[in-house]
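Wait, mind explaining this?

_____
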Amino acid sequence: MSEQRNETLHFNKNWQQQLAEAFATLDELCHYLHLSPDDLSASLSAADNFPLRVPLSFAACMEKGNPNDPLLRQVLPIKNELVAYPGFNSDPVGDLPAATRAGVIHKYHGRVLLINTGSCAINCRYCFRRNFPYSDLQLSKQNEQAAIEYIREDTSISEVILSGGDPLLLSDQRFVKLIQQLNNIKHLKRIRIHSRLPIVLPARITDELINTIKQSPKQVVVVVHCNHANEINARVIAVCEQLKNNGIPLFNQSVLLKGVNDDASVLCELSERLFTHGVIPYYLHVLDKATGTGHFEVPELEAIALMKQVQAMLPGYLVPKLVTEKAGTMSKQYLSSACRE
């Protein structure tokens, strides 16, 4: 059976089946991309520390035969992950001290974050929570009610952010139940969903999911995570436009990554393509210094200079805010006033 035929069959399956068929080994991914592991600085030890996981929908956006593809670089376990970079640690943004109880991170005034699951559809090698103790602190079914009560009792909380892992990996039943419980908290104004799935596993954006979001009396905002314009294929475009056409606000946050998007023209193309399909460029994060990610770092001064180039090339509404998150601070920090209109 031809490779194209296999892909057609795969994309006709539901999102759970597509997720189950994600690439989980270096050999499988390299075979699909027509690459030899010998062409790459791949590391089985790095994959043991943080497993490889790549849905076919994302891998299909990569250039086959190109060992330097910017999308491949985001997911390929390499030897540099095993290097101890100064200043990098397992909790770079101070999540653990802000974990008020299992599943709840309360760092910023008016906003609380729920760690709904430790699972992701894709394991991004630069992930700032790659070392997070999900087994202890994710929002399991058993402690979900305690988290809801925490939000209900604190009337200063106006927004709940569903995060993870990826909150859209919850089953429809659990997702609907969680949204319904949040809908019943009177002082909540908004529910924000942070998810990479519209980009890497667009099949997850089903009519049922959209209806659950649409029917919420709270304003629901979806923040996707896309780092490079090549991630935006026809399936991604279709679900983004479907969300937009159903009145659901869409924003994007990216991470500035060496060898992936640390180029002004690449960042401009990303903003243009996102906006064309209804997604507003929101944040560009400098790298959170998580253990195992140091090879992705772009120094802050270089990042500021890069964003000044982007600002000169784009209208202000297409320029994402360049930000960093420091442990113990009360909000994200803007790195340059030039990033604001």
In short: Confidence is low (pLDDT under 50) at residues 337-341. The first helix runs from residue 3 to 11. The chain has two domains: 3-82, 96-339. The radius of gyration is 19 Å.
